[in-house]
């Protein structure tokens, strides 16, 4: 019997697009993944990663049953066990560790391996109940968020679909072609109508290569560039006086106290962009009908990252761009999805506020905390051995004999290799969940196209089973995904007004209740004053500099020894490490990790294209192939990643070289602010 059907679901990878996906299932097997033509943002196509997703689903490397460690830590020798045995052992360990050291010796470490609300966050309910150490998830966007919120507050600002109305799109620290490909048709539409696309990026990424102009800025110098642009706009009388008067606060202070320091000439020294170039970009931005800065989260991943985002937001404010349809700042729409997360996370189960770990400090916590130490680690939806900073130290932490580690995964990642128990997880094609977006205003319920492969089980089921084994019998531990999705949608937030939860559950693509064709901040900015704050009241309250500025290069402490700045942006064919298990994806990325070196630097150091080079700093050393290219600028190295350490030379990934130092504001990660030396390896 030949059975063929099409199932509509949502891609739950950590990507702004959250595509609606049509999966063809033939005789119980998913055979084709296609973009939903009826979804206003997906528009009938998928990215190169998810097109052909059956290669991920049916990869021979998928984990299909629970396993227990039989070798040394990290050696990846396991024996197959049953689920009952695995759950009993995990529950027993949780009891032991808690009895010995208290709940705070337990840590759940997770991120957005799945963006589905239920499976992503259900662990919180169990670990709140256990009184575990809490996780502050600062690995991605905290720096950029802090800068954006300081100026305009948590709001989407510009509807991504309205970017078609813009006549000047600045891809600022944002490789949209790679990281948000479903915005590209909207940008193309704007360009068809005459818009220009300018990329501001330290290297010629795919977006810069496709742009009308590329401004090769020095990494981390964006506050100086944006402030110099405001300086020009101010001096040349191009500011939007009416907007500034009616819709903002603090411009006079910015103009009097900050702008004088940022003449185009002084900014040119900092940014490596000539003063005339800054002037002309500033004039273009001011004279455009609806200029928009499409800002990447990456702008925040440097020492001055918060100030970078703050300065760019001020720039858009100075010309009144936020009130022009399609203009302003297009950054992150995730803040609009105000679902009732408590239904899944159950913060009410935390008896007292327990200690908090910054994700970026995982290595330090596992190796240094002793009051109490971390004795039990539960990892899901993340691959910290590859994606967290300071991975050489983390390897020591995960290798601790007195640490019991559970990893719930789709693949035997570098992290899973260190597990005491490995549990198999399904892909989003095999599970139901409600998925939000952080690049669109749409929400959708994904429905399993096929059942979980092998013995794999979704996060919620595993968490509930562990809880029940510990004797927790609250109805939450028996809830279905749909029960919890209904709980998530039980909110009276205006963004959800008029939304019918049952239609959402039926799989309808649902736009948040936000008006179309109206600039996002038309009803007021989301700051304490309700206005755009050139002088931030929130930062002032927190004792931080209330206005943006370029505050030196604080991580550059030993320029003689470590003269190069290393940035580590996303790779086109990977999603962090989520596609790294596939040979095909690795082949398309060149087969092994590479680092881009400018030809002048290469000539000086005797490095030829294809040579093996060693990158080194105080944290570690690691090797990769050199790619000599003028896509990058002198003094800067670019390693697109993140590769699995397992597939890197000597098993050492790029995050051996990145630090856990935090951004100026927001306490975010700083993956693009690293100092290293490079030399040809013997
Ligand atoms: N293919 C693919 N897509 C992805 C991801 C992936 O790994 N692969 N990751 C997903 C995730 S989790 C996220 S958070 C999003 C967004 O992920 P982000 O990491 O914010 O990526 P982009 O927005 O593309 O920004 C990267 C660009 O910023 C540039 N950059 C770095 N430092 C600076 C700087 O100081 N100044 C300026 N002007 N530019 C700088 C880099 O050179 C790079 O071209 O993408 C998502 N989409
Ligand atoms: N050097 C450098 N490091 C970076 C970055 C960078 O730009 N440069 N970017 C940073 C950013 S922006 C981010 S967001 C982080 C992301 O870092 P991570 O959160 O570690 O992201 P991934 O590497 O994609 O790992 C996600 C894992 O979740 C698993 N998974 C997927 N679905 C499920 C599921 O349903 N259940 C379970 N249990 N597991 C599942 C996948 O198999 C995968 O191994 O990396 C950060 N690290
Ligand atoms: Mo991210």
- Return the CATH class of the largest domain: Alpha Beta
Largest sheet: 6 strands, mixed
CATH architecture of the largest domain: 3-Layer(aba) Sandwich
> pLDDT below 50 for ≥5 consecutive residues: which ranges?
none
Categorize the overall geometry: globular
Tally of separate domains: 3
Question: Roughly how many Å is the radius of gyration?
Answer: 25 Å
Count of beta strands = 27
- Binned, the helix content reads 25-40%
**CATH superfamily membership of the largest domain, which one?**
Dimethylsulfoxide Reductase, domain 2
Return the structural class: alpha/beta
User: Going across the major beta sheet, what is the strand order?
Assistant: 5-4-17-16-15-6
CATH fold assignment of the largest domain: Dimethylsulfoxide Reductase, domain 2
Bound molecules: ligand MGD, molybdenum atom
Taking the alpha carbons of the first and last residues, their distance comes to 61 Å
Overall pLDDT level: 98
